[in-house]
Amino acid sequence: MTAPSARPRRRADAERSIARIVSAARTLLSADPSATTDDIARAAGVGRMTVYGHFRTRADLVEAALRDAIRAGDETLAAVDLAGDARGAVTRLLASSWEVVAESAALLAAAAEVLPAGRVHELHAEPVRRMTELISSGRDQGVFRADLPVGWLVSVVQYILHGAAEEVRAGRLASEEAADTVTKSVLSVLTG
């Protein structure tokens, strides 16, 4: 009887360990994209070998941290009211998106360094779907431009968000001005 109960306990312990490691990676990489696996292990309260027992490579760990950030961000963005006027919906979505992107700008930089080309984009499938539907809705309403492909416009929105986050990190854009700057820039692109 003791053998079956020991096995689920190890699984639960491993899951808690993984959660601590991912949380530590997300926190550290969001502050410093060059945070090492040793730094993350220390912050998680585990040994380096424990980290590598769950994540074969630093890239696997970075991807797990990015997935966790995207999941949390998606929960925030899913709560945004996108009904009604597409222009107002984009403004509301950008306000929430900006906070999510700003929080993970350094984590995205870490991911871009270690993940294969296109992987960061693949991980953003749900936010891309949401923005694609919103831009398409704005086109149907006649408030967004129809002379450029929707996929291109979604990419431009992402570039603006990530670019603003980098500008804030570099000290060239005040964080309190970023949301308004992002919104004005995106709306100018979408309404061209």
Tag the structure with descriptive keywords.
192 residues, mainly alpha, Tetracycline Repressor, domain 2, 10 helices
Task: Kindly describe this structure.
The chain has 192 residues and is mainly α. The chain has a single domain, classed as Orthogonal Bundle (Tetracycline Repressor, domain 2), CATH 1.10.357. Helices cover 80% and strands 0% of the residues. It has helices spanning 2-31, 37-44, 48-54, 58-78, 86-103, 105-114, 119-123, 125-141, 150-169, 175-191. The radius of gyration is 19 Å and the shape is elongated. Residues 15-73 form the HTH tetR-type domain. One of its GO terms (molecular function) is transcription cis-regulatory region binding. This is AcrR family transcriptional regulator. Pfam families: TetR_N (PF00440).
The backbone outline, from C-alpha atoms, is: elongated
Q: How much helix, percentage-wise, in residues?
A: over 70%
Order of helices and strands: HHHHHHHHHH
The major beta sheet can be summarized as:
none
Structural class category: mainly alpha
CATH class: Mainly Alpha
* The CATH homologous superfamily: Tetracycline Repressor, domain 2
Number of domains: 1
CATH architecture: Orthogonal Bundle
The CATH topology is given as Tetracycline Repressor, domain 2
**Count of DSSP helices?**
10
Mean pLDDT over all positions: 89
Give the strand content.
under 5%
First-last Cα distance:
69 Å
Note the topology:
Elements: H1 2-31, H2 37-44, H3 48-54, H4 58-78, H5 86-103, H6 105-114, H7 119-123, H8 125-141, H9 150-169, H10 175-191
InterPro entries: Homeodomain-like_sf, HTH-type_TetR-like_transc_reg, HTH_TetR, Tet_transcr_reg_TetR-rel_C_sf
Organism: Streptosporangium sandarakinum
Keywords: DNA-binding, Transcription, Transcription regulation
